[in-house]
Amino acid sequence: MITLHGMSWSGNCYKLQLLMAQLGRAYDWQEIDITRGENLSPEFLALNDRGKVPVLQLEDGRIMAESNAILHYLAQGSELLPSDPWAQAKTLQWMFFEQYSHEPYIAVSRFVMRFLPADHPRQQQLAVLKPFGEEALAAMERHLGRLSWFGGHCYTIADIALFAYTHVADEGGFELDRYPRVLDWLRRVAAQPGFVPMRGSPASAVAKQLHPVTDPHSS
Amino acid sequence: MITLHGMSWSGNCYKLQLLMAQLGRAYDWQEIDITRGENLSPEFLALNDRGKVPVLQLEDGRIMAESNAILHYLAQGSELLPSDPWAQAKTLQWMFFEQYSHEPYIAVSRFVMRFLPADHPRQQQLAVLKPFGEEALAAMERHLGRLSWFGGHCYTIADIALFAYTHVADEGGFELDRYPRVLDWLRRVAAQPGFVPMRGSPASAVAKQLHPVTDPHSS
Under 8 Å CB-to-CB from A209, ≥6 apart: which residues? Predict the structure, then answer.
């Protein structure tokens, strides 16, 4: 059985939990709490010398980092990764967008607002991050005016990658009501077979609307 | 014939020129000078509403953005994109690393140092970017102590993606002499069949060493 090492309230790690649930595949989960420095332990650094989560570990010991690369590997052969070269690359286009133009603004804003003290110097970053995060959400809104899903006509790992931090963007100060197509898309993702909510994210009003049933794993 | 829209001195655009040369494939090149705002023209925004280069345009009009997604599409079926699922995802791992942990520091430092006036306010960014860029180069150096190439045992589009800005990192204030395995890898990339230098990059001492023959396209 594969092992996934990650922190449950990290969107990058949640991506993998969501994919595995939708694939109906079992896995071992190793919780790595980066707020307690567990990612810098000798054991974890032996897995990933960059000290970053998530990490995929195969039974034979092989290791992979980068959440979106892990999604690509785990989704191989399923409908969640198109086999057609154009469709697969379009899926990757939005996954690169997510890592370059979305996560560094929306996920970082969420981290600063939700997990750092109100008087932390990094709170000053928020004003700088805000317009770039809004730009990312606006690009998603425009895309959803043309196509139903980010990979094209079907739900794919591009949707999983983008859902992870978009559905808790309000925790980073982003008002999703301004992006009605994005809100509708979030609801359609949460209605996909096998969907599981992110653990430990009760602060997000949007996330609560998407999965109103109490999550037994929430912390 | 496909059309590539880009700016020749952009590393993200050069990636595609290098791949196409190594595949021996012809293409139309449309130069888009973002310093003159050509990426914000109505014609270009009709191709990519985010105003970003590079853009791939197929003969039938289909459009793709994100340099690394375009590399993935164009390299399909060639040795430069491994078909084995693990090897392909490991290749993508380093391409996501490039966009998340490398390009935002090394490419941005190069842009600020080389293309903005010495008294531009963004010069203050350099001190912030520097340690992250060094961390990326150090991660590459460690990897090259384990494997010869970024995708594994063969030259792949992960090497092309990382070469683009690494080989001109000195234009962003990074001393590559500190990373001897990276320097050796740069030389091995530049020795690959079909290699073409980046146009218009004579400021880089490292790039000059890699391709000492005068580039007739240099500007």
Answer: none
List all residues 6 or more positions away from A112 whose beta carbon is below 8 Å from its beta carbon: A120, A122, A123, A125, A126, A129, A172
Note the Cα A143 to chain centre separation in Å.
Answer: 19
E-state strands within chain B: 3-6, 28-31, 55-57, 63-65
pLDDT at A161: 98
Buried b (16+ CB within 10 A) or exposed e, A17-27: bbbbbbbeeeb
Under an 8 A CB cutoff, do A139 and B76 touch?
Answer: no
Contact B92 A69 (CB under 8 A): yes
Task: Tell me, rounded to whole angstroms, the distance of Cα B154 from its chain centroid.
Answer: 18
Count of pairs with CB atoms under 8 A, one residue in A, one in B: 87
Confidence at A212, pLDDT banded by 50, 70, 90: low
Q: Where do the domains of chain B lie, and which CATH numbers do they carry?
A: 3-74 (3.40.30.10), 85-210 (1.20.1050.10)
- Chain B residues with CB under 8 Å of a chain A CB are 49-50, 62, 64-70, 72-73, 76-77, 85-86, 88-90, 92-93, 95-97, 99-101, 103-104, 139, 142
pLDDT of B175-200, one tens digit each?
A: 999 999 999 999 999 999 999 999 97
Largest distance between two CA atoms of chain A = 50
Q: Cβ separation of A92 and B68 shorter than 8 Å?
A: yes
In which order are the strands placed within the sheet that holds B55-57?
Answer: B28-31, B3-6, B55-57, B63-65
